[in-house]
Amino acid sequence: MDAKPKNEPPSWSLWTSLSYAMVMVLIGIPLWWKTTTVQRAPLPYQEMLMLHEFLTNNFRIQVDVHFKGFSITEDVALENTAYFKYNFIPMADSEKEVMKKSKDLYEVDKSLCSLSPRNELNIYYVDRVEFRKEYGQRIVVGNCNSIYYLSNSAPPNFEIITSILNNFKPSSNDNSSELNLPLSIGYDVLLSLLVPEPEVFDVTWKIQYGIKKYIEPMLQKLNNFAEFNIRSQILYYIRLNVRPKFNKDTGNYEVSYDQLPIVINPVESKLTSFVSQNPALNFLVYVAPCSSSPMQIMEEDGSFIDSNGFFVPQWGGIQVYNGPCSSSSNDTTPHEVSIRSIMSVIIPQFRALIGVPRLTGDVAVLDLRGSALRDWEVDILLRRRLEHLLFTSANTLMVN
Questions:
Q1: What is the pLDDT of residues 135-160, one digit of tens each?
Q2: pLDDT digits (tens, 9 = 90+) for 296-315
Q3: Cis peptide leading into 5, omega within 30 of 0?
Q4: Do the beta carbons of residue 388 and residue 178 sit within 8 Å?
Q5: Which residue blocks in the chain are alpha helix, DSSP H?
Q6: In angstroms, how far is CA 96 from the centroid of its own chain?
Q7: What does the alpha-carbon distance between residue 266 and residue 239 come to, in Å, rounded to a whole number?
Q8: What angle do CA 284, 286, 289 make, to 5 degrees?
Q9: Fewest beta carbons within 10 Å, which of 45, 193, 221, 371?
């Protein structure tokens, strides 16, 4: 008896399997390959390697310098540089009126601040005897973007003027790169009052008044530099890690210079009580305990530090505040910290911390009245920060 033949699959199922296979081969695999491939754009490595050198040789921020009131002679030949573009232009009638009627140079500068654009430097030739008696025959830099050449009818010395202008370059050498703040779009300014003996010294401070009067006008000028958030706090029972020695001759408890490097680390962990991604700029006011008051910080050569404080680059500053102590050890002495006294130390520390330039050469600078920053100081800070950001970005693109 013959065996029954096995049931054969219908022909349509074979064609279905083949169609599925064709779809996977012709569409599925190319689609999978396309969607899982990592896109790699070609990078100009050679140009990236040469970017830093290119910026060093070609990137400059040029400032317009206008000489006003100078008599132009044939032997005056000032060639434009990569940083400065020179122009000789006459004074406007309004500027001449200010020069004649103002009683002192500060009044001249205050009036010209509203007349001069922010993006240029104006150098004025000033021939007034009363101004020369006060400042001498020299160059005086104002609080805005004006420079005053005080002289008599003698021909001006343009070599001295151009040497002074070197201070206004972004790459000035008075504050080197190690003093630059960490790059950030914002910073937290933390003002701390350290009271090691609150049971002996009942200390208070009107810090909000000090912030509004002294710090906020300065930070308003730095809006284009970065965003600053101000905080304040009072910390009790915190002592500096120093051992002052009593000097019988001066009657002071002296903190030697070699103790200063060990002051920050023990205190730093107790300062920050908030969470922030911004770098913190710390300014500490340490109320000296009565057992070691008056406390005095010493220079490396053994002389007194006039501010009785010091600052650390990229971190902040510390100052010692000596208050009146009671003769009785059982009494608690109430005392309000002098805001004017501590701000006279904090403001210079802040200026040094952000890298405010200091002019070199035979030049005088008008006293600050109002904000603790001059317009030309802010302009230099912005130019330096732009240059720093640009070169830092270029360095991150360099490959080894």
A1: 888 899 999 999 999 887 677 788 88
A2: 999 988 899 999 999 898 89
A3: no
A4: no
A5: 11-23, 29-36, 45-49, 51-58, 93-101, 105-113, 129-135, 158-165, 207-210, 216-220, 264-268, 339-354, 375-397
A6: 36
A7: 9
A8: 170
A9: 45
